[in-house]
Each structure stands twice: as C-alpha cells, then as structure tokens.
C-alpha cells in the first residue's frame, strides 16, 4: 500500500481547485465557470449503487436549499455519461425527483486523481465519497472523505456551507453543531495583555459574537 497517496490527499484547504473541462449530464462544464458562486464538487463510487442512490435522491430534494445560498452542486464518477443518464432516469421514475445538477463522467480518472478522489494504488477505479467546498474565488475551503459503505449527511453538507458563508466576511468562528441564527464565536485573543484584561474566567478564550446574521 502506498501510504504517501491515500484518498483525499490530493488537495488541501486553501488550495485553488484545479480547473478542468468535462462532459456532464448538463452539457460541458468547466470548473472556472463557477467563479463568483460557491460550488460543492463531490465524487461518488459508482452509479446504480444503493448508498449513492440515496445521496442523490436527498441532494436532488435539497437542490433549492443550495441554490438559495448561491451554491452550485456538481457530482463526478468514473461511469460514462450514458450510465449517468440511465441512473438519473431510474431515480426519477422510482423516487419522483429529477437530478438537475451536473454529473461529470471521468472515465480516465484525470479529474479524480487531481482531486485525490481515488487512491493511486486502488484495486478498482471507483472514487471514494469526497466532497469539496469551493468558494467564489475557486479556493477549497473544506473537504470531507467518506468510505463507500457510509453515505454523507446532506444536512451537514448544507450546514458546512452555511458556516463557511457566515464566517467568510468577518473574523468569526462557527462552534460545534452551529446552525444559522445561533451565535458565532470571536477569534481567540492573541496577546497576554488581552488575556489578563479580559472579563470573566473564560472570556479570553471563548466569547460569542452577540450580533448574528
Ligand atoms: C453504494 O453506494 O451503495 C456502494 C458503492 C460502492 C461500493 C459499495 C456500495
């Protein structure tokens, strides 16, 4: 096993997301065309598999929640465009939801490898469940990596996006389990004088911001 290149090691938070053009279920897409919007780019192991199907059904149901936040969704797997089409048709017919966000075909894994969506020594060509949260400047702001046997939490994907957006324009921090409307935290104090001058026992390291959006 090559431990120098496990899945999800391709990119780090703060990296510019590599640009690419690809065929997708919504026509040709280029990552840089999404500049100015938030983008969630995610990989799935394979079409016509049970967990992936549940993820796509849930994301399709929540598509308007992401759109309301000016965030596009874009999926990717090694499967062909025609496999994607057939799967989306099956999802529409069985679950009554239309997946309208683009699903990229990446048969050569050129994109999957650039993003660390597949291990260099993987025994099959399936990608793992990686999710990249990309800001309007094209910078990776968060990423998650789930195995094939556990589906992602779609409310957590939305919560991550909310937290990234809420802390984007001000020096604020989102605490554990933070939800929109709840208080954010202030950046920790950085000087000893401020530590000694702070009110309360713990105010020097844990202070909420009173005003929330
Ligand atoms: C699934 O999505 O259910 C799945 C994908 C790859 C391997 C096993 C299960």
Question: What does this molecule look like?
Answer:
- With 213 residues, the protein is an alpha+beta fold.
- It has six helices and ten strands.
- The protein has helices at residues 50-61, 63-68, 81-95, 110-114, 154-166, 192-197, and strands spanning 21-24, 27-30, 38-43, 71-77, 103-105, 129-134, 140-146, 172-173, 184-186, 208-209.
- A five-stranded mixed beta sheet has the order 5-4-3-6-7. A three-stranded antiparallel beta sheet has the order 8-9-10, with no helix packed on it.
- A hairpin with a 5-residue loop joins β6 and β7 (140-146).
- The longest helix has 15 residues, at 81-95.
- The model has no long low-confidence stretch (mean pLDDT 92).
- It binds benzoic acid.
- Benzoic acid is lined by residues 45-46, 49-52, 126, 148.
Indicate the low-confidence ranges by residue numbers.
none
Individual helix count: 6
SSE arrangement, N to C: EEEHHEHEHEEHEEHE
Q: Quick one: how many beta strands?
A: 10
Write the layout of secondary structure elements.
Blueprint: E1 21-24, E2 27-30, E3 38-43, H1 50-61, H2 63-68, E4 71-77, H3 81-95, E5 103-105, H4 110-114, E6 129-134, E7 140-146, H5 154-166, E8 172-173, E9 184-186, H6 192-197, E10 208-209
Parallel strand pairs: 3-4, 4-5
Antiparallel strand pairs: 1-2, 3-6, 6-7, 8-9, 9-10
The site of benzoic acid has 8 residues, from helix 1.
């Amino acid at each position: 096993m090559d431990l120098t290149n496990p899945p999800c090691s391709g990119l780090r938070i703060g990296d510019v997301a590599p640009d690419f053009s690809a065929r997708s279920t919504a026509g040709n897409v280029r990552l840089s065309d999404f500049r100015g919007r938030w983008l969630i780019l995610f990989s799935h192991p394979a079409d016509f598999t049970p967990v992936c199907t549940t993820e796509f059904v849930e994301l399709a149901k929540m598509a308007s929640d992401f759109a309301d936040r000016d965030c596009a969704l874009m999926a990717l797997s090694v499967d062909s465009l025609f496999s994607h089409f057939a799967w989306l048709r099956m999802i529409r017919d069985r679950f009554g939801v239309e997946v309208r966000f683009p699903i990229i075909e990446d048969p050569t894994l050129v994109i999957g490898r650039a993003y660390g969506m597949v291990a260099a020594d993987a025994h099959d060509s399936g990608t793992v469940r990686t999710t990249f949260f990309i800001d309007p400047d094209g910078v990776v702001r968060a990423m998650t990596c789930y195995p094939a046997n556990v589906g992602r939490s779609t409310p957590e994907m939305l919560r991550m996006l909310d937290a990234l957006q809420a802390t984007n324009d001000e020096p604020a921090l989102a605490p554990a389990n933070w939800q929109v409307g709840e208080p954010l935290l202030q950046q920790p104090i950085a000087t000893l004088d401020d530590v000694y001058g702070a009110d309360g026992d713990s105010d020097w390291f844990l202070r909420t911001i009173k005003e929330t959006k």
